[in-house]
Amino acid sequence: MYLEHSSWERHRERLAAEAKLFEQVQVKLQEEKVAFDKEKKSEEWGLKGLKLKLQASEDSLAEERRKWRVTCENDNKKMYVMRTKISNLVAHVEELKKSEADYKEKYEEAKSHRERVEVDLSAQIISKDRDLAGKDAKIAEFKHRLPEALKGLEEEKQKTESLEIDLIT
Questions:
Q1: Dihedral sign (CA 137, 140, 144, 147)
Q2: pLDDT tens-digit profile of 109-119?
Q3: How far apart are CA 78 and CA 72, in angstroms?
Q4: Separation of alpha carbons 54 and 110, rounded Å
């Protein structure tokens, strides 16, 4: 019986040690299970959180794309207006260049015409100056002859008067 008792005691001690070890392993298992559940929940929540963040990002991106499209449309409209204005200005510049060439041509024509007229007027002035000089010379000659002519007229008058007197008598 002693042997049985000692073997039973050893067996009981071994079972107690194994029970303690089992309890320790069971506590460790519970802790690991709790940690695993936490990790699992955090992963689920993290996954849900990430899904929510992804959805929010997609919504934000969609809104940004919509705004970008509206901005692009507005910019395209502005650019079209600007392009039209630029095209009109380019056409206007071309017209101005053509009209400038026409004005230059007309200016050159007017300038050459003015020069011809000035030459003609200079020639006329010179001619008139010569005529005037000639007329001045004639006037001076007439002035010089006038006293002689007046003398001659007076003599003629006297002769005619004397002839009249002779005729009357």
A1: positive
A2: 989 999 999 99
A3: 10
A4: 80
